[in-house]
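seq:
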Amino acid sequence: MGFPENVLAQDEQVVRHLRPHWLTVLAPTLVGAVVVVGGVVALLVLPDGSVGTVLLWVVLAAVALILLVFVLGPFVRWRSTHYVITTHRVMVRRGVLTKSGKDITLAKITDVSFRQTLLDRMIGAGSLHIESAGDSPDEDLTNVPDSDEVQQLINRLVDEDSRSRRGYGE
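struct:
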């Protein structure tokens, strides 16, 4: 599912559209695999008869609940999180049932910094902290793929926006 283009201004273009790094859903995927394997093993060793049937339904309900909460939930949150960098602003959209969003115009961005742990460096991700002028709180973007490159991209766009506002661009 792409980001809807109808939220863009007429002369605005998407420079980069990101989601959190795919490894964000690796642990839930592994949990899902372990739960499914555990469920299959439990089904194979359950006794026959009415007690076994009750236990079968309990195991199936537990597997379904665990998969729903610990696998499907994180995957849907990952798919519904968008970090969009345009020629005018940085947009953050999150949520499925309850959606939230924040737009930070390039002119209001005062600083962009990134942070990478050793693991982040190994997988090519990191966190971005965007400080903006005004009353709105700063924005933290987590598990951003190529966070150091994205930081440089935003800094370049902020600089270009500043120059064009002063009449030096174009």
